[in-house]
């Protein structure tokens, strides 16, 4: 599939969060390339694990900023993060059962998984932080 492109469309207006998201986009593209180039299945599993671990770290980064600046939507946002991690861990288990092969559908799922949260929930947080942090 096509690479995810980083652009202002994905920017939430806060540099710290944008940097993390940019890195997530790069990791997604790395996985996409690995699939397209028919990389070793153990390698695919390793890239997926790296993407998930970075995402988990990034979520805790956002949650720290929400706590620091007293963001009202913290609980709701945190629940969404937990659901996203659960969903991607389920995908990881499915992939692992399939001997670590990652399908086009899996990549489509991951692309949506990544962008839908950025374009909705993180945009609201980004506007808030832009006001608080400048
Ligand atoms: Fe978020």
% residues in beta strands: under 5%
Query: Which series of helices and strands comes N to C?
Result: HHHH
**Given this structure, which CATH class is correct?**
Mainly Alpha
Q: Judging by the overall fold, what is the CATH architecture?
A: Up-down Bundle
Describe this structure in words.
This protein is an all-alpha fold. α1 (15-36) runs antiparallel to α4, α2 packs antiparallel against α3 (74-97) and α3 runs antiparallel to α4. The longest helix is centred in the C-terminal third of the chain and has 30 residues, at 104-133. The mean pLDDT is 96. The relative contact order is 0.18. It has one domain (13-133): Four Helix Bundle (Hemerythrin (Met), subunit A). The chain has helices at 15-36, 41-68, 74-97, 104-133. Helices cover 78% and strands 0% of the residues. Residues 62, 77, 81, 117, 121-122 line the site of fe (ii) ion (FE2).
What is the fold's blueprint, element by element?
Layout: H1 15-36, H2 41-68, H3 74-97, H4 104-133
The chain binds fe (ii) ion.
Write out key terms for the chains shown.
Four Helix Bundle (Hemerythrin (Met), subunit A), mainly alpha, 134 residues, 78% helix, binds fe (ii) ion
Summarize the structure.
The chain is mainly α. It contains 4 helices and no strands.
């Amino acid at each position: 599939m096509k690479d995810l492109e980083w652009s202002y469309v994905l920017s939430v207006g806060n540099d710290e969060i944008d940097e993390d998201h940019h890195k997530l986009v790069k990791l997604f593209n790395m996985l996409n390339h690995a699939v397209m180039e028919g990389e070793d299945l153990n390698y695919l599993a390793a890239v997926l694990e790296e993407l998930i671990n970075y995402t988990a770290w990034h979520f805790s980064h956002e949650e720290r900023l929400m706590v620091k600046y007293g963001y009202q939507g913290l609980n709701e946002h945190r629940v969404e993060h937990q659901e996203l991690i659960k969903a991607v861990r389920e995908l990881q288990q499915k992939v692992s059962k399939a001997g670590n092969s990652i399908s086009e559908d899996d990549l489509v799922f991951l692309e949506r998984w990544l962008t839908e949260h950025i374009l909705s929930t993180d945009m609201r947080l980004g506007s808030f932080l832009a006001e608080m942090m400048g």
